[in-house]
Amino acid sequence: MAETPIRIGILGCADIARKVSRAITLSPNTTIHAIGSRSIEKAKRYASDNSYSSTVKIYGSYEQVLDDQDVDAVYIPLPTSLHVEWVVLAAQKKKHVLLEKPVAINTSEFDKIIDACESNGVQLMDGTMWMHHPRTQKMREFLDDSNRFGQLKSVHSIFTFCANPDFLENDIRVKPDLDALGALGDLGWYCTRSILWTANYELPKSVTAFRGPIFNKAGVILACGACFQWEDGKVATFHCSFLSNLTMDLTAVGTFGTLHVNDFVVPFEEKSATYNSATKSWFTELVTGWNPRPSDNIVTTDLPQEALMVREFARLVRSIKDSNSKPDSKWPTISRKTQLVLDAVKASIDKGFEPVEVVS
């Protein structure tokens, strides 16, 4: 018999929830059970615009979704400033939580979220979709290969897009009371996660923000960057911006190999993704070319990465429900490390671009 799908409730009608709603529908082990907004009219309109099934419950408050006994888990795409309130309440109602990033305004707030989820035995996972693409595992295998890649020496990550005037004026990501970290929280989250992922989640010893971050008139970051340093000498840099052309580059350099990805956050194509790898490259005779040349690697998938994320989240929820398994601590641990480094970048900016030690 087919397994009963995990029933997911959605808190809020954010634009990103449209993508995750589709992912919940595509995932074979989940279904949208309910949608809640601050008004019933908005929730109804959202459900209609996104072709929700007529069986989906529509609520005029977030509380009603959490009080629905048939909801197994919730997806929370609310502004970052609301995460602590609603994740803690969801955990207390025994709802498992798929949480949009950045997970919190700072690590202190995220620790409240972790404590609530742990004490109530619910799974917590953030919405960093690219982590679940099969390409990510293939790239991990290359990075872990001591013969092909060797020892990690440097990582460089960029995520930018050129936002339109309406975004820069009205989007929640430029509002200090909603998403105070701005581009650092939105785009810098991906850059920081990619660097930590490349370094097998070893925290850097120190972080130094680059001079010249750009703020809007409300003091929210529109563009910034930083350098990370580890005790063993490896380094990393990132740049994130709402003011530059769409770019999603990740480069990792080892003693023997190099990894290049030009679309690490969202692949150019939904069902196929590539990465470029080079091993022991050198110059040709007379230094007129490369030998061997870097190679392009193609990884295909039947489901888009966001549906793979939802499927894995639901698998963990099902394991807890059916087998009394403990929630997987891997995901909140990774989220917390990412948040710690973001905190250090923000602190370095606030302290005049001084180095800030990363303390776990």
TrEMBL record:
Residues 6-125 form the Gfo/Idh/MocA-like oxidoreductase N-terminal domain. It comes from the Eukaryota. One of its GO terms (molecular function) is nucleotide binding. It comes from Aquilegia coerulea (Rocky mountain columbine). This is Uncharacterized protein. PANTHER family: OS10G0403700 PROTEIN, PTHR46368. Belongs to the Gfo/Idh/MocA family. Residues 137-259 form the GFO/IDH/MocA-like oxidoreductase domain. The lineage of its organism: Eukaryota, Viridiplantae, Streptophyta, Embryophyta, Tracheophyta.
